[in-house]
């Protein structure tokens, strides 16, 4: 316990410095989440070993992950993404999963990338909505057409793999029991969403707004309770806890939608982006095994190849958007969509714990995910408005 205050002080200092550092360059600014990951790598046990992602630090990182997915669910505006954005996102994700499965079965058959093909394909089809949402918000893109289509694509790219790993890759119960638990969880979520929609009256929000001026902070406590409730339900039902946090965010978002919920959103933003979420990104960097990049002779080639496959797999559906997005935005859209890490880490951990994936293979897969969040958002920002695809 005596080492925790020092390590927490270091992490708090990094979390404070990251947004300051991003403001220094005049010509180009790194996304703050990318810088947090880089600084986490540097202070972690695999580089300078100033801190270790264990104990209280690891717990805060896990809490940050659940709060990040909660805030992602909160950010989704179903009235904006329903219809064409959503249908294109679903179709694009199925194309991504199909292409990923073909590629991973091929590379596994020739021995170049020896990982369970289906497990790796699901990981390759993910998009890190939790990473993209703050980047798009900081750049003022959330409310644009570009942001709407990207958020829809990223939401499906996050939720689709979540459903697959929850239903097929977590063997905590028999198939029948697990399916029953999944259906029960969906029913509870739908009931909660219905209640949230019916509670969305201006009078109710007005009452909650008044209580936010007191020390009780009742609306904030209700939101935290809902999040913990759905996370606990997901864990009890043998699902991944991130799907519980994501669902809780959707339910709360439905309840507080509108101008009346702005104050509550600001308070949740302060808790998430001001405290827990930066810790998650820093801890994610600390957990990155740099040695995986040279663990086997082909490791560097495999990381580069998997990183390129992420762009191919998640970027290929941009073809569906060729009549919607201006040509100058399409390549940027592809790189944003290919950004993934949280679910890649989760799927890799599931593979290792279940004995389906050797730890060194999982480390290479996670390395590709780390490359994607360090490089792809920067490329997307630099290329937006400049690159033109040949169609």
> How many helices in DSSP terms?
17
Look up the CATH topology.
Na+/H+ antiporter like fold
Shape: globular
Task: List the helices and strands in order.
Answer: HHHHHHHHHHHHHHHHH
Helix content: over 70%
Determine and state the CATH class: Mainly Alpha
Beta-strand share of residues? under 5%
Question: How many DSSP-defined strands?
Answer: 0
User: From the helix content, strand content and strand pairing, which structural class follows?
Assistant: mainly alpha
Distance from N terminus to C terminus (CA atoms, Å) equals 59 Å
What is the average of the pLDDT values? Answer: 83
User: How many domain regions?
Assistant: 1
Report Rg.
21 Å
Q: So, CATH architecture? A: Up-down Bundle
Provide the low-confidence segments as ranges: none
Largest sheet descriptor: none
Describe the structure in brief.
The protein has about 400 residues and is mainly alpha-helical. It has helices at about 5-20, 30-45, 55-75, 80, 85-110, 115-125, 130-140, 145-170, 175-200, 200-210, 220-235, 240-255, 260-285, 300-315, 325-335, 340-355, 360-385. Helix 1 runs antiparallel to helix 2 (about 30-45).
Can you characterise this structure?
- The chain is mainly α and 391 residues long.
- The protein has a single domain, classed as Up-down Bundle (Na+/H+ antiporter like fold).
- Helices cover 72% and strands 0% of the residues.
- The chain has helices at 4-22, 32-43, 55-75, 78-81, 84-109, 117-124, 129-138, 145-168, 175-198, 202-211, 218-236, 241-256, 262-286, 299-315, 327-337, 342-353, 359-383.
- The radius of gyration is 21 Å and the shape is globular.
């Amino acid at each position: 316990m005596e080492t925790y205050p020092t390590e927490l002080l270091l992490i708090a200092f990094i979390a404070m410095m990251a947004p300051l550092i991003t403001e220094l360059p005049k010509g180009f600014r790194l996304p703050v989440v990318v810088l947090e990951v880089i600084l986490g790598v540097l202070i972690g046990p695999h580089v300078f070993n100033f801190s270790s992602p264990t104990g209280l630090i690891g717990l805060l990182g896990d809490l940050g992950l659940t709060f990040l997915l909660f805030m992602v669910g909160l950010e989704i505006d179903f009235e904006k993404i329903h219809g064409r954005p959503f249908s294109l996102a679903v179709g694009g994700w199925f194309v991504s999963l199909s292409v990923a499965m073909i590629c991973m079965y091929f590379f596994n058959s020739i021995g170049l990338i020896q990982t369970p093909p289906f497990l790796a394909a699901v990981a390759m089809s993910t998009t890190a909505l939790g990473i993209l949402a703050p980047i798009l918000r900081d750049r003022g893109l959330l409310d644009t057409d570009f942001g709407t289509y990207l958020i829809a694509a990223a939401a499906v790219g996050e939720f689709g793999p979540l459903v697959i790993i929850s239903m097929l890759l977590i063997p905590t119960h028999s198939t029948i029991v697990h399916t029953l638990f999944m259906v029960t969880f969906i029913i509870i979520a739908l009931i909660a969403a219905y209640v949230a929609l019916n509670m969305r009256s201006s009078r109710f929000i007005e009452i909650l707004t008044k209580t936010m001026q007191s020390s009780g902070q009742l609306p904030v406590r209700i939101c935290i309770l809902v999040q913990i409730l759905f996370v606990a339900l997901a864990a009890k039902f043998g699902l991944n806890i991130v799907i519980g946090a994501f669902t809780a965010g959707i339910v709360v978002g439905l309840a507080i939608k509108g101008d009346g919920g702005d104050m509550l959103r600001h308070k949740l933003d302060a808790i998430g982006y001001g405290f827990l979420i930066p810790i998650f990104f820093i801890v994610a960097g600390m957990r990155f095994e740099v040695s995986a990049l040279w663990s086997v002779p082909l490791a560097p080639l495999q990381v580069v190849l998997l990183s390129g496959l992420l762009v191919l797999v998640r970027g290929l559906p941009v073809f569906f958007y060729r009549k919607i997005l201006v040509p100058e935005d399409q390549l940027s859209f592809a790189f944003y969509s290919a950004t993934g890490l949280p679910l890649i880490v989760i799927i890799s951990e599931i593979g290792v714990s279940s004995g389906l994936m050797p730890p060194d293979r999982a480390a290479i897969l996670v390395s590709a995910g780390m490359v994607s969040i360090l490089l792809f958002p920067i490329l997307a920002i630099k290329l937006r408005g400049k690159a033109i695809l040949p169609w």
